[in-house]
Each structure stands twice: as C-alpha cells, then as structure tokens.
Amino acid sequence: MSFYNWIQKKIFNTYEEWYIKSPFYDRNGFHITIIDNSLKAMQRGLIMYTQISPPHPINGCESMKAIVSKDKNLINLYLKINNKKYCIPNISYEDTHQIMRTFVPKSILPKEKTYMEIVEEEHNKKMMDSFVALVELLFKDSKLAKSFLNKINLKNIEDDTEELWFKLYNELLLKEKVIELDWKEEKDIFLYSVKELSAGTNLVIDEQLLDENQNIPIWSGKLNSLWTDYVLAAMELHCDTYVLLLLTKEDFIKAQELARTVLQRIAPAKEV
C-alpha cells in the first residue's frame, strides 16, 4: 500500500484500492460510508445488490456481495473464497452492515460456520432462466424475444447484469414495447404515451384527475389507483427518465420477481 493510500485509509476512511459495484457505483476507491448508503438504498428497494472487492484476496476472499432476498427485509450475502461461492442466507440488514463494515477496515471474514457453499452453475442457471422468462414476458412476442436473446450472451449474467439490462431496455424501446419520458415531461405528452401503451385494453384514462402542475410519479399513482387489472410500471435505470410499460397485474407480479432475480428492478411507475 502506498503512503497516500495509507493516509486515505487511516485518516479519511477512504479505501482507494478497493472496488465497489452496484447500480449506483462501479469504481475503484470509496469512502466507508458508501457501504451504509448502498445498504440503505437496498432496504428502500431502490437497488438490488452491492458488491465490494479487496485489492487482493483476504483469507482467500475475493469479493463480498449483498443481494436483496426474496423477503425484501433480508439479505443473501455471497462470498467468493478460493474460487468457490458461499452464501449466508436471509440475514438482517444490520448484520450485513456489520459484516461488510468489518471486512473492509479490519480484513475480518464472518465465521466459517455461518456460510455454506453453493453450486455456482445452479445459481447462474437460475438467473439465466429468469432473464429469458422476463424477456419473453415483456416482448409478448416469441419471435422478437428469440431474436433479442440470440444477440446477447448470458454466460456471465451476474457480472454483466447492468449491461444486459440496458440492452433489454434499448431493444424494448426500439420495438415500441416501452416508452421513455423525461422526468419533467408535461401532462399531455404523458397522457399520449399512456394511451399508446394502453391501446386495445379498454382502460379508462380520466384526464381531469391529473393536475398539469404535478409529475409522472403522481399521475402514474392516480391512474394505478383507478385500474384493477393493470399496472403502469417502469424499468429502473437510475437516470433522469422514466421507462414506462403497461402490464396486467398478474404479469407485473411475475416481472417484478424475475427482475429481482437478475438483480434489477421493475416497479410501479410512482415508485421509480
């Protein structure tokens, strides 16, 4: 460790040689509080994972990755140790915070008895199958879905999840399965877009209920409160636009879970 990096670590709690990856961050070097902020974002449902990696293996550990569990109030914590993958399933955010906060400054791993080895091939296959199912659900056209899947490589899906998510978004946009709006879009453009998405559904859109001085989250919430069988949803891209899609409630529940499995997020547009 260089003298500069030692100063950053000891005085400023900044770990220049460490790597962090999440939908918010993808970089070398971070202040210790980024772990706190990332876990808070996960707890709020804004992101699905946070991974930290030391500059060199610590007791064989190459990385530590927190992923939101099926129970959104819990975490599955994955450790890559000596090229094998282990998991501490369904632990609290508080315990996850303590483990990650101990791993970075003190180079201490959780006790070996707390984690179990998992078969990485099975883990990856579950993510691949979920991504394929999500693609098929969102395109609602087997030929379009197959054409898109033939253009991408799912072999390293966990590492490539952000790239694959953006490729899916771009293809859905190209095929007019979603509509992208600026965060400050005006009411008439929003209404036109929703009408385009809802064509053929017989959904009622009461324009009088939407105040032109409000915004997309509020308008979306009002529409969803009136609809019983459909959800105006959005793909989370962590940018200043809304990628809107219309799903039946049944398909929305499926899409939300499939997206979570591939470490991404589909939510009611009001919540994105």
Short description:
The protein has 272 residues and is an alpha+beta fold. It is 41% helix and 24% strand.
Order of helices and strands: HEEHEEEEHEHHHEHHEEHE
Counted up, domains total: 2
Query: What portion of residues is helical?
Result: 40-55%
Mean pLDDT: 94
Note down, in words, how this protein is organized.
With 272 residues, this protein is of the alpha+beta class. It folds into two domains: 3-118, no CATH class; 123-271, no CATH class. It is 41% helix and 24% strand. The chain contains nine helices and eleven strands. It has helices at residues 3-12, 33-43, 93-106, 120-139, 142-149, 161-174, 187-197, 216-226, 249-261, and strands spanning 14-21, 26-31, 49-53, 61-68, 75-81, 84-91, 116-118, 179-182, 230-235, 241-248, 266-268. Strands 2-1-3-4-5-6-7 form a seven-stranded antiparallel sheet. It has a four-stranded antiparallel sheet with strand order 8-10-9-11, sandwiched between helices. The longest helix has 20 residues, at 120-139.
